[in-house]
Design a protein that fits this description.
This protein is elongated. By secondary structure, it is of the alpha+beta class. Mean pLDDT is about 85; it is low at about 1-15 and about 30-35. The chain has a domain at about 70-189. The N and C termini lie far apart (about 90 Å). The longest helix has 11 residues, at about 1-10. Helices cover about 15% and strands about 25% of the residues. Strands 4, 5, 6, 7, 8, 9, 10, 11 and 12 form a nine-stranded mixed beta sheet that branches. The chain has a three-stranded antiparallel beta sheet with strand order 1-3-2, with no helix packed on it.
């Protein structure tokens, strides 16, 4: 009889030979627990439907994260590690850029566009020539922006006036979508 019980223990692994104690064979996560993260260094390390998220642009590695299902419509720009300015961080994540820093990309860190050579932005992005409070100038260099298909209606207080003919008191998104050159609006209604 004892041999039969030992054979059963080897196959089932629930009972020990000398007691009725339960012996766990593995710990399984709860049904609602997240699966362990997959480490990545480049986007190609991640499975389909995910992107490589890093805590900073200088981080050597990150984790594969799901693309967001939808993004809120807000203006809170970030400079993606790919040199593209995104209207908000969710838009950056939806486009698979690995990380970001707050605020728009500066000329020395972003993908530049416009200027005397009329450099074009990568497909799907638009040239934002937002000059601040300085003079308008001719053919200024801008930075490439990723914008949602429809600009947010509840935009930030950051407003822009066209240099020359064009809209006044435009939101960042609306100003960039016009394709013109803009400087900061002095006072908007």
């Amino acid at each position: 009889m004892r041999r039969v019980m030992l054979a059963a223990v080897a196959v089932v692994g629930v009972l020990s030979a000398c007691s009725d104690d339960t012996i766990p064979l593995a710990k399984l996560p709860a049904a609602d627990a997240q699966a362990p993260s997959i480490r990545c260094t480049v986007p190609g390390d991640c499975p389909s439907g995910t992107y490589c998220e890093k805590i900073s642009c200088t981080a050597a590695a990150g984790t594969c994260e799901l693309f967001p299902a939808q993004c809120p419509s807000v203006e809170s720009s970030v400079c993606g590690c790919d040199g593209i300015t995104y209207l908000d961080d969710c838009l950056r994540q939806a486009n698979g850029a690995s990380g970001s820093t707050p605020g728009p990309c500066h000329l020395d860190e972003g993908v530049n566009c416009g200027g005397p050579a009329n450099v074009a932005c990568p497909s799907g992005t638009e040239c934002g020539r937002l000059l601040g409070f300085g003079p308008c100038g001719t053919d200024p260099v801008g930075v490439c922006w990723m914008l949602p298909s429809t600009c947010p209606t509840a935009a930030s207080a950051d407003r822009w006036d066209a240099c020359g003919a064009g809209p006044a008191c435009a939101t960042v998104c609306d100003a960039i979508k016009t394709g013109g050159v803009f400087h900061r609006a002095g006072k908007c209604p």
